[in-house]
Amino acid sequence: MAKDHVGGSEDYEALIEEVLKAYPAKSAKRRAKHLTVAKATEEEPDATTGIASKCDTQKSNIKSVPGVMTIRGCAYAGSKGVVWGPVKDMVHISHGPVGCGQYSWSQRRNYYIGKTGVDSFVTMQFTTDFQEKDIVFGGDKKLAKTIDEIEELFPLNNGVTIQSECPIGLIGDDIEAVAKQKNKEHGKTMVPVRCEGFRGVSQSLGHHIANDAVRDWVFDKEDSDAVKAYEPGQYDVNVIGDYNIGGDAWASRILLEEMGLNVVGNWSGDATLAEIERAPKAKLNLIHCYRSMNYICRHMEEKYGIEWMEYNFFGPSQIAASLRAIAAKFDETIQEKCEAVIAKYQPLVDAVIEKYRPRLEGKSVMLYVGGLRPRHVVTAYDDLGMVIAGTGYEFGHGDDYKRTGHYVKEGTLIYDDVTGYELEKFIEKIRPDLVGSGIKEKYPVQKMGIPFRQMHSWDYSGPYHGYDGFAIFARDMDMAINNPVWGLYDAPWKSAPEAIAAE
Amino acid sequence: MPQSADKVLDHAPLFQQPEYKEMLENKKVKYECGHPDEMVKEIGDWTKSWEYREKNLAREALTVNPAKACQPLGAVFAAAGYEKTMSFVHGSQGCVAYYRSHLSRHFKEPSSCVSSSMTEDAAVFGGLTNMVDGLANTKALYDPKMIAVSTTCMAEVIGDDLSSFIAQAKQKESVPADFDVPFAHTPAFVGSHVDGYDNMQKGILSHFWEKAERTVTGSINIIPGFDGFAVANIREMKRLLAEMGVEDYTVLSDVSDVYDTPSDGEFRMYDGGTTLEDAKAALNAKATVSLQEYCTPKTLEYCADKGQETTALHYPMGIQGTDEFLMTISKLTGKEIPESLRKERGRLVDAMADSQAWLHDKTFAIYGDPDFVYGMARFLLEMGAQPKHCLATNGGKKWAKKMEDLLATSPFGNGCQVWPQKDLWHMRSLLTTEPVDMLIGNSYGKYLERDTGTPLIRLMFPIFDRHHHHRFPTFGYQGAMTVLVKILDTIFDKLDDDTIIPGETDYSYDLTR
Fold it and tell me: Would you call B192 an interface residue with chain A, using a CB distance cutoff of 8 Å?
């Protein structure tokens, strides 16, 4: 059936106007500031992507409008769910009522190697399961006892983090005092995190608070045996902001090691506490998810003089460019090996592109994700000949949108903290060939007959990072778009006459 | 190089390739500073001992891997079963993202719900503005016929008063004065999702019934309760009622359409559900039947206060559970149970008799919501199987007593232990010290299957890692057939797995079983 398509920047401006009409005046005014179209810019095109557009004209990182169905989460999700949760040898307590820990249990696919429940604890749900009396009388005693019980039943844990849920900050509990006391008693790292869900406007403040907790409760404490025993080397690097979703960090690490670097710490997918503690001794911080961990990189730069750089391991063009940029920070040995790594994987890249590009060329994509993905994955789609029609961030800041201008072309629709209503209308009118977003968006989009991939969890697939991951990425996009099911939506006895009339 | 374009390796085989195994071994040895392998082995074995079990069962503060969620999830589920109803959860916004994700992951369906997005300033000044603006936005954007308000724990801790806030929002014309905005306070630190279900049901019914006059009719109300299989179970229940010729009834909260919408090019935010007219008229029913007692204590009490006869069942599954449901309906409506259903019952009994040799004395651990555990245990007893551990994190002392009474009715209930308010880490100790043949629960049980080798049968919400099971009923005689087949398949698959080595064990790899 012919659809009422729109495309191109003028259409998009009109589309924005149209969706805003549905809101009451006050909210329309607020939402208008978050919706825009990438503009032309005087700036030089980005050296590796060759792209320059202006994407930072709208507001971001401000409160969501009540009642509109924002897709955002909360600070707890940013700390427990993203930053701390993947650290495998620590126990992360969801401190407060049962729900937060239950809904986030095992949902981010942070892969790790370890004996769960014995020396690793990532896919478990530890909670103080607050009851009414804990709200009324305070939860510090229960927390203290919880930590003691963890110590008794899970003796191989290397530390505990306390992930605060909403009530903690409202009832005046002193979790810092409990942490200090328990650190003394058990001699293990205790990290209280003030990531109550009402703080800030999204996951983003939770990332920041979690980063600060690393600084205050790990770095600023006495050196552990792991730190003391560690001999720094000239090729030591940390990978920061790779959560090893579906094995992403492993598919990245293999490339860095092949070019002669030592990945001392991977933050925080498959990480141990030792990898966090030793990080300040490395030569260079490589940051993938800038949004969630730039804070600690800046701190390490200021305090320990460690340089940091952003890189992008989505899609072969950016992987090669990033590998070279990383190698340029080191000597010729590394640079030579870097070229050898790129050359080694080139046949794989060629074969993947040869196989999948003809099946995906010219297909349009709309993205709505978080962290780095609304811009970083764009080039992986470019490598397959696919075109980005729109993109947006759940919890981006101005600096994210500024960087987005190096990835998307003028005329791309940009939506910040998009609402369920807006996203549905945009997709309905643009009718892209693929939408990449989250679980809450997946089924509404598929009902509309549009192929979809979850781009938070990789839709239970992955890794998508690195060369090995690119092959999986290309295969997944192909199977989403080219599955025959999308052709079966219309019952033949119903649609045929109307479709002819419409054309 | 392990990866290729011809045969793309997914994560499972990819990371088993030698390059990656070597890389991960190197990471472990050089950077992780983990405990020695022998120590991990020793502690791992210790966690499976009786000594550990005793320490584990003595826990007072720590909860590990609970089998329950918080109240608002149940409230959102209950509200979704009413016609064109949008759930509006007052409090922090992250919670709503969690409920929606949780429901979507189970049903593989859209789950729509909004938040009043309260932040730090609202924590200080209260969330009235969020309510006022929020209701107006929800009404304008999503065109609901009703907005059902519940609360996150943040709003509960600061003490926001929903009744007053909604009244003020209406005064400020957020929504018209006569627009339906029922509400329920659903503190996450009291009870679990089944209580949230109860509170929202009561909230909706009292919204419609409080000022209305009751004129008794012959109609009956049926409340299904929180149920991961609700889509198929409500349809199956309606089919049973149709077989009996019962037409004058109202399902209070019917989610069977909204969590099972077709793919035909249109996204239906709302579909089906109990009409608001029917919800209003439900006051006049002569009786209300709850299919799950522990999902409805307050609601049933309210119905009784209004003069209705009330009956509470425990997940009508299996022979006696279904018998009881049909006889309850028959008694209330005066309609006879038809021959067709007697034959259906007979077919289920026939299937159970055919397979009894494979089920007799097989041992089971069951966990889940209180009513499900009751209904499931009852069906196992009917089959000559032996429940050994019955656990409900959200089950209380009364539930435990009721379970013990049930177990006492059958010799197959001998030696079964009931575990109220315990979690799945307790269950791990139970399974390692007193093993059973099979475990019945939800997807979280897969970790128990991994750690203890007990085959898992998924019959409880949430099921994330298997698709579409919830589209087949577990209620009624037909549903029991599905449950029976799942159990039997698990037994036979295990038996085949255990006898599959050629020339070694395959003498027992029988063609006919």
Answer: yes
